[in-house]
Each structure stands twice: as C-alpha cells, then as structure tokens.
Amino acid sequence: MKENEKINYDWRWCLVGNIVDKRFYGEEHEIKSGIKLLSPGTKVYIAPHQWGDGGDKLVVLGKPRHKNGLIECIIKREQICNWRLKKIYPSRVLDRMNCSKYHWWGNDDDWKDCIENYAKDVKQVLSNNTKILKNETREEFLLNIDNINVTPEGRIRIKESLNLNLEDVVEYCKNKISDKNCKISREGKNWICITDDIKILVNACSYMIVSAKKR
Description:
- The protein is an alpha+beta fold.
- The chain contains five helices and eleven strands, in the order E-E-E-E-E-E-E-H-H-H-H-H-E-E-E-E.
- The strands form three sheets. Strands 6-5-4-1-7 form a five-stranded antiparallel sheet. A four-stranded antiparallel sheet has the order 8-9-10-11.
C-alpha cells in the first residue's frame, strides 16, 4: 500500500460500505443489530489497511448512533457490507480525511484501481464466510412483510400525507408493497418501495414504516 503522505487533497477516491443489519455477538452467538457505535445500514467511509493484520480491522468514518457529526473509529471488516468505490468531493467527510492521523486514499488512477480490486476481493472473502450473517434480500423482505408496522405518530403522518380516509394504513402500505409492479430497492437503513405515485420507506431492521408519501 502506498503512503498517503498526509496531503490535503481537493478530492479523493474512497472505499465506501454500510454497517451490516445483524451480527453474531459473544460465545452464545446472540444476534445484535448493527454495532455499538453505528446503526445498521449506516454509510461508512473505509480507510486503507493501517496494520499488518490482513485487513481484519479497518478505520472508518461514519455518523454515530443518536448523534450528529462524524466519528473515526476502528471496526471489524465483517461488520461492513455493500463495498463500493466513491469519489469524495469537498465536504466534512473530506475535511476529516485530510486531518486524520490515519492514512486515507489518494485521487489518482492507481488508487482507484486499488479500491476496485480490494472491494472485489473482500466481497468474495465475506460471501464465502458461513459464520457471517447476510443482509436480507428483496425476496426475504417480501416474505417478512407481515412484520411491517408503524408508530401511532407515523400512522397519523401517513394518513395526512396520502390523504387516506381509512384506519389501517399498515395494511394499505403492505398491499402497495406486495403489488407486482412495486419497485423495491435497499438504500442505507431503509427499503425503498415505489409503486403508482407513492414512495414508502421501511426500516430494514425494525420493519417500521419510516414514511409514505406521494412522489
């Protein structure tokens, strides 16, 4: 790995991922949601290897639970999914990278190639590890659709947003999500469900409806 040389780059290539939804914890293999500092689905910016441990532990930047701003912390590689390349332009993220005590990626084509190759390799390694919990697929999400719920406050917001004259907004949203023409994708912490002129967000771990609005 090349030395970063602590250059204050105008922009950088970066390896980006998301915190896994669920993980095993302790000798009893208890299932936990996300990790202690970061919620499931949180986007993290991943630094190059800092030590000679094969990349088992990595430095990341991410937004901590129930707080604003960014923290720089060290987590296990298996706690990250959705590895991908991203271009970081001037922002608070780039500012943190430029002033970090750790090494971060540069902005030439060698760095870009390095990130793309590493992301490909690590996804292969993690996909073959049977001890790591895998994030739910679209098909699994639909199989668990009966777990979808909403808070009392959320029920009121949805009724007002969609101008619904009915009480069971959960059943209404479930029917929309189940529609064969509904486009379902995962974005960070939420499942995004788009059908007709309605966009529904469902938290991937709690199955709680975050919002339902007309597009």
